[in-house]
């Protein structure tokens, strides 16, 4: 696949790399996020199933920081990417100290998170 990307013209490469890869996102999630997060259970961080479309700090059974609990942020693809780039810039006073430096890693992780639908509600498209 990477050989194909290298063979594309520069403008096509840019468009291709803007699309998140669920498979790559799962791998980045395992390497960078799974030490504190799990799709279905709380760990040091809250569970991620159903995160897309949920308000930050909204799970009743997780003890969020005051900054997240009082946040008005709705987790959309854009806000998740901003969070993964710089959590403190998005929600000052939050406690997560992990950032994903690569824009492609952020795209891919968000693509993966979008697959973690909560069957109890219909996620936004």
From TrEMBL:
Please report the stretch or stretches of sequence annotated as the Cytochrome c domain. Answer: 20-117
List the lineage, top down.
Bacteria, Pseudomonadati, Pseudomonadota, Betaproteobacteria, Burkholderiales
What is this protein's record name? Cytochrome c family protein
Q: Which domain of life is it from?
A: Bacteria
What keywords tag this UniProt record?
Electron transport, Heme, Iron, Metal-binding, Transport
Query: Is Electron transport found in the keyword set?
Result: yes
């Amino acid at each position: 696949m990477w050989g194909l990307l290298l063979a594309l013209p520069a403008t096509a490469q840019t468009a291709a790399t803007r699309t998140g890869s669920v498979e790559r996102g799962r791998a980045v999630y395992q390497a960078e996020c799974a030490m504190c997060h799990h799709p279905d259970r709380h760990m040091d961080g809250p569970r991620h199933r159903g995160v897309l479309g949920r308000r930050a700090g909204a799970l009743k059974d997780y003890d969020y920081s005051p900054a997240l609990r009082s946040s008005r942020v709705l987790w959309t693809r854009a806000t998740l990417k901003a969070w993964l780039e710089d959590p403190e810039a998005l929600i000052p006073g939050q406690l997560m100290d992990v950032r994903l430096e690569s824009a492609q890693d952020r795209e891919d992780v968000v693509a993966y998170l979008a697959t973690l639908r909560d069957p109890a509600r219909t996620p936004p498209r």
